[in-house]
Amino acid sequence: MGDSSSDDENAWVFYKDRPEWKDVDPVPQDDGNADIAAIRYTAKFKDVYDYFRAVLTKQEKSERALQLTKDAAELNPANYTVWQFRRDILKALNKDLYEELEYSQHIIDEHPKNYQVWHHRRVLVEWLKDASKELHLTELILNDDAKNYHAWQHRQWAIKTFNLFENELAYVDQLIQDDIRNNSAWNQRYFVINNTSGFTCEVLKSEIKYTLEKIKIAKENESAWNYLRGLLLHDKEGLSKNETVTNYCEELYSSGNRSPFLLAFLVDMCDEQVSQGGGDMRYTLERAEELCNSLANQYDKIRTKYWQYMAEKIKNKAEGKSEPSPPSDDS
Amino acid sequence: MRKQNANISMAATLRKFEDLKNEKFNEEDQITVTSEEQIQVERSVQEIFRSFRLRCDIDSNLPKLLRWEHIQALKHWLTFLPPGYKSLDASRTWICYWILHSLSLLEVKLSDDLKDSLVDFLKRCQCSDGGFGGGPGQMAHTATTYAAVCALCIIGTQKAYDAINRDKLQQFLCDVKTEDGAFCMHRGGEIDIRGVYCALAVATLTNISTEKLFEGTAEWVISCQTYEGGFSGCPGLEAHGGYAFCGLASLLLLNKGHLCDVDALLRWIVNKQMKFEGGFQGRTNKLVDGCYSFWQGGAFPLIHSLLAQENKEPKWLLFDQGALQEYILICCQYPAGGLLDKPGRPRDIYHTCYALSGLSIAQHSIDGEKLILGSPENKLAKTHPIYNIGPDYVLRAGSYYSKLDIPGNEPSFL
């Protein structure tokens, strides 16, 4: 946000100078005298909002009030009161909602990171019970910013409410191809599968294959590693018993790769093995310690404290202690 | 045993500039939008680190918190905002909170006159049907209500406490509660996890919380924990720092922290600290932003308390407190006061508040121990990691409102 701006006031006719508004007394903002968080409004802003407050107070739901809310929303699209009153008017006047839908697209395009404009859109779609334009709209926005949270939220809502899952996996695929690190796309992949086929054995198998292929391309891509963990949440055997995954990780490690996400994954496998018991406990424990040390001291130094904590946690677990070592200041 | 450490202050040391080379993003020959943007940010941060090193050789007191400059900027903003701030015209109670909290972190005392004026203004933002809007005459909104209530608790006078119509506030929260335990941002407004956090924060601060009001809420919050471990704004969406804070703080306010997967949350959140920049990103593979210093950093004391409940209490906060202070002090301070998202971005009040809040979290370890990067004069006051106002303000509001009766409104769909 800049520290200064001016509304284009050249061709603007103030509401106070409009004959069709002569019957309305503008309502100035009730700010008191103290100038707290006082914004130096432009004359246009003050004029529009003085008249907005007037129609809001009177609850005047008219054509001219509808037009006024447009001016008010354009000056500050984050004003939720304006949008809510606009919806009240649309309903009261039984307006053509498709026209409003078009207008909302235009304003979302201008303010794609604004909560209110997306919510307005959603209410319109709910009223119309027609989500036929929502996938296209969100794609347009995601073309500019593939991680726009509001666009994803709207898209997920539309897909889930109107059962539009059909081509979504293909879209997600495309986005992951465009940017393998697009975490929003990976999240959407999870969303789609979770709400359609579910993570059945077959789906798990093919998704693991897909993900490992993506990890091969970029081994330090956290998004793919996180998705892999997400998949294994659905493997009844847990994180460390899936042969495809463990073989892949061990091979990658043997080849000399030291991606912190690979090492972190191996640590969590050790952690799980220790929890479940069995196997060569001493070996597992030594390995966990070695991995945590190399992460703490070499491959993931920003997270030193976390890796020290993990090493200790696994050790304590192995020793069957519920009691961790005392806090540092006690020693 | 722990009390004796209350005044221990340790100097944090800067990471070695030469070592940082190894911490840069590894593109692995896969050039994408994400990697290009990340590398660009690292370049600008590296340039700032480099020139900082040169200045450091001359002045061993660096990095320095520009306390005076921040205070001047904040005081100025409290009464004068240029027309460009019109986009925050529906967030003026937020502006009050951001400034008052920042000033309190900087240990600035407010005059009684100013306190009265603030209470007078905030009262004008209170709606006749309960809650606070973003400005006078605007509808009540859960987020601007959170901001107004926090601001009033920081002001902390009898007038401030009495300004809140608690009965109507409870009625407002009942009105915006949904059947599945979540909260709308306003009557007819959108639903997301911010609504839950804001409702819980104001209800507990002012002692209007009832079991009915938050029935089903913990379960709804849990449904927002994602496969990555963080929380999203609504079920199904991507884990996100701001929403994760809201989710975790909400569960703690409900005393139901144990319902979430703490290990997964911890794993996700430690990985949101950027290995080169030192600050936090909000989501996986996104860019560093000064405001996540609090949204992510502030979650660590909360996670700490959860792990302590499970008898897995770590020895320290589980992020690199020194590296976060480096990012905030070296990269996020605007020379004329105020803080920012990342180098090259303009300063603003929101980032000033949350970068300072994050700095405070990073400086204050558990058990009252302090870890201060730069001169000891950089030390900020503490913040309460659930409400993000000073811990004393939480206590004082608690003791004031606990003497009053809890109103008996109920959610309207019941």
Automatic annotation (TrEMBL), chain A:
<keyword id="KW-0637">Prenyltransferase</keyword>
<dbReference type="Pfam" id="PF01239">
    <property type="entry name" value="PPTA"/>
</dbReference>
<comment type="similarity">
    <text>Belongs to the protein prenyltransferase subunit alpha family.</text>
</comment>
<keyword id="KW-0808">Transferase</keyword>
<dbReference type="GO" id="GO:0004660">
    <property type="term" value="F:protein farnesyltransferase activity"/>
</dbReference>
<dbReference type="GO" id="GO:0004662">
    <property type="term" value="F:CAAX-protein geranylgeranyltransferase activity"/>
</dbReference>
<dbReference type="InterPro" id="IPR002088">
    <property type="entry name" value="Prenyl_trans_a"/>
</dbReference>
<keyword id="KW-0460">Magnesium</keyword>
<dbReference type="GO" id="GO:0005953">
    <property type="term" value="C:CAAX-protein geranylgeranyltransferase complex"/>
</dbReference>
<dbReference type="GO" id="GO:0005965">
    <property type="term" value="C:protein farnesyltransferase complex"/>
</dbReference>
<protein>
    <recommendedName>
        <fullName>Protein farnesyltransferase/geranylgeranyltransferase type-1 subunit alpha</fullName>
        <ecNumber>2.5.1.58</ecNumber>
        <ecNumber>2.5.1.59</ecNumber>
    </recommendedName>
</protein>
<keyword id="KW-0677">Repeat</keyword>
Automatic annotation (TrEMBL), chain B:
<dbReference type="GO" id="GO:0097354">
    <property type="term" value="P:prenylation"/>
</dbReference>
<keyword id="KW-0597">Phosphoprotein</keyword>
<keyword id="KW-0443">Lipid metabolism</keyword>
<keyword id="KW-0479">Metal-binding</keyword>
<comment type="subunit">
    <text>Heterodimer of an alpha and a beta subunit.</text>
</comment>
<protein>
    <recommendedName>
        <fullName>Protein farnesyltransferase subunit beta</fullName>
        <ecNumber>2.5.1.58</ecNumber>
    </recommendedName>
</protein>
<comment type="subunit">
    <text>Heterodimer of FNTA and FNTB.</text>
</comment>
<feature type="coiled-coil region">
    <location>
        <begin position="3"/>
        <end position="30"/>
    </location>
</feature>
<dbReference type="InterPro" id="IPR045089">
    <property type="entry name" value="PGGT1B-like"/>
</dbReference>
<comment type="function">
    <text>Essential subunit of the farnesyltransferase complex. Catalyzes the transfer of a farnesyl moiety from farnesyl diphosphate to a cysteine at the fourth position from the C-terminus of several proteins having the C-terminal sequence Cys-aliphatic-aliphatic-X.</text>
</comment>
<dbReference type="Pfam" id="PF00432">
    <property type="entry name" value="Prenyltrans"/>
</dbReference>
<keyword id="KW-0808">Transferase</keyword>
<dbReference type="InterPro" id="IPR026872">
    <property type="entry name" value="FTB"/>
</dbReference>
<dbReference type="GO" id="GO:0005965">
    <property type="term" value="C:protein farnesyltransferase complex"/>
</dbReference>
<dbReference type="GO" id="GO:0008270">
    <property type="term" value="F:zinc ion binding"/>
</dbReference>
<dbReference type="GO" id="GO:0004660">
    <property type="term" value="F:protein farnesyltransferase activity"/>
</dbReference>
<keyword id="KW-0637">Prenyltransferase</keyword>
<dbReference type="InterPro" id="IPR001330">
    <property type="entry name" value="Prenyltrans"/>
</dbReference>
<comment type="similarity">
    <text>Belongs to the protein prenyltransferase subunit beta family.</text>
</comment>
<keyword id="KW-0677">Repeat</keyword>
<dbReference type="GO" id="GO:0006629">
    <property type="term" value="P:lipid metabolic process"/>
</dbReference>
<feature type="domain" description="Prenyltransferase alpha-alpha toroid">
    <location>
        <begin position="65"/>
        <end position="389"/>
    </location>
</feature>
